[in-house]
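Support reply, case 0932

Customer input (verbatim):
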Amino acid sequence: MLIALCVIGIFGVITFALAAATLGTLNRRFDTITVTATTNKAKLNSPLAETIRIDDLMNHLRQLQRIADESNGNRAINTRGFNETVNYIY
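Our regenerated output:
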């Protein structure tokens, strides 16, 4: 029994040492990583995109919010809010 506990203890110490060495190596490598992110402005190549006016879009969003507010804040499928949304769209 004592031998089994010693073997388990040795395996535990070895596992801990390997984990510490691995984490130390990874931590040093993360410090050397330098990444530069760039963002690109989306290009609207569609002639339809040019016809969208922000005021019209905001009016539709307000209408959808009004439908949700009148339906207990819900427009999920099989609810009154969903049915009113479908009626508004079509």
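We compared this against your earlier run and they match. Two observations from our side: The helical segments are 2-31, 54-70, 80-89. Residues 2-31 form the longest helix (30 residues). Please reopen the case if you see a mismatch on your end.
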